[in-house]
Structures are given as structure tokens and as C-alpha cells.
Amino acid sequence: MATGSANSINRRTWRRPTAFRNRYTKWAVYGAVLALVVWSLASLQITPGRFLSGLGYGYELIESMLPPETGNEYTLRLFDRMIETIAMAMVATVAGIAISLPVAFGAAGNLSPRPIYYLSRGVISATRAIDGLIVAIIAVIALGFGPLAGIVAISFKTIGFFSKLFAEDLEDIDMGGVEAVRTTGASRFQTLVYGVVPQVVPRFTGLAVYRWDINIRSSTIVGIVGAGGLGVLLQRAYQRYEYDYVAAILIAIIAVVLVAEFVSAVVRRRVQ
């Protein structure tokens, strides 16, 4: 009897979503979405013939990649760039997080005055608005080719990601513990160290490892515009039509990313 009553209550309380209560409105929305998709395909000149011919070219490309290049000279160069990629990610993660910490504390509305809060949120929005490859191109123009430009680009993107998520964690802390430390006569800095930091250390560690994982992936890409790492080799191999070497580079990128993903997963499980 109780189950029947619960089912009847659920049937009485369910309501059709307001946007689709009128069937004409529903079909009008579906028609508008379909028209937008068709218009987008037409404007981009995506045709079935072009797609099928692309499949044929793709098959030829994959065939030219096999077997991957495994010569000693190529392997040593690949290993050197792989080490450079990992080093770029490590340095960029540490530098980006170091810059992100004051920004994150400033962007926490429960810890900062309004002027600092809005300024920090503006910094987060600005760093999130610009794509990493655009930043890498600007860094290459300003600093020249090499890993330094890649470190600057990856650090820049780390600020927007890490600051935003860590600021949200800071806003979710228990303010009762913070007030308890403050009532003992602690200074603002002591309040942060003893009242705030212990509550967010596990989350900070998890975010740092997660961002390092992302930076490993990013460091394999920014090299395409000359910012160091495996991307430099990938771009040069494409330009020289050395597709067998391209395959070897792609395998190396996948290996680096998988190892980083495994390490990241292990560390996050331990800190949670």
C-alpha cells in the first residue's frame, strides 16, 4: 500500500518541462536546431564526397606510418625530447601553482575583501579566456623558440585552471574553525595557516597532481608552434613527410600520457 501511495505521489508531482509543455514550441525548437546544423554543414562545405575521399587519404597516411621508425639516431632524439617534455610540465606546474596560490586566496569571497576578490576573479577570467596555443605563439615571438616559451604558456594556463578550482574549495571550508583560531588572537596570516590550510591540503594535493597530468598533455602540443618538447619533433616530421617517424612520436606521446595518467590516479587515491 505504501509503495502504491508513493507511486501515485510521483505521478501527481511530475510536470512536463516548461519549455516543451507546448508541442508546437517543442517542434519549433527541434526544427531550429536541425536548420542550424544543416546551415553549419553547408557553410563549412562538408559533403559526403569530401568525407569519403578523406577516408581514402587517411588510409594511405596510416599505411605510410607503418612500421614506425626505430633507428638509433631517431630513438635518441625522441628520448631527449621526451625528457624535455616531462621537465617542461614539471617546471610549469610548480611555477603555475606558485602564482595561482595568492590568486586563489584572493578569489575566495569568504577570505578576501571585495576589491581583491574582483581583481583576482578578473585575473582568473583573463587566463582562462586565451587558449594555450595562442599564449605559446606569443611566448615564442617574445622569448624565441625553445622550452622556455612552452613553460610560460603552460604556466599561464595553469593559473586559470588551478586558481578557479582551488578558490571554490576555499569558499567551501568550515568558517567555524577559522573563527575559532581568530578568537585566540591569531593574526591574519596565522589564521590562514592554522584555520584554512589544514582543511584544504588534501584537495590542494589532488588538484596539483591533476594539473600536472594535464600539463604533460599540453607540453606535447605546444611544441607544434616551436615551444619545445615532443611537438617540435612532430611538426618537423610532418613537414619532411617522415610519416613513419610521426608514428613513433605519436607512440611516445601516448606512452608519456599514459604513465602520467597512472601516476596521477595513484597519487589522487592516496590523498583522498
Helix-and-strand structural type: mainly alpha
CATH architecture type of the largest domain? Orthogonal Bundle
Radius of gyration: 26 Å
Mean pLDDT: 84
CATH superfamily of the largest domain: MetI-like
How many independent structural domains?
A: 2
Highest-level CATH class of the largest domain? Mainly Alpha
Strand element count: 0
Low-confidence stretches: none
The major beta sheet can be summarized as: none
Briefly characterize the structure.
The protein has helices at residues 2-13, 23-43, 48-65, 72-106, 114-129, 132-143, 147-171, 175-183, 188-219, 230-239, 243-271. The chain is mainly alpha-helical and 272 residues long.
Structure description:
This protein is mainly α. Helices cover 81% and strands 0% of the residues. It contains eleven helices and no strands. Helix 6 crosses helix 7 and helix 7 packs across helix 9. The longest helix is centred in the N-terminal third of the chain and has 35 residues.
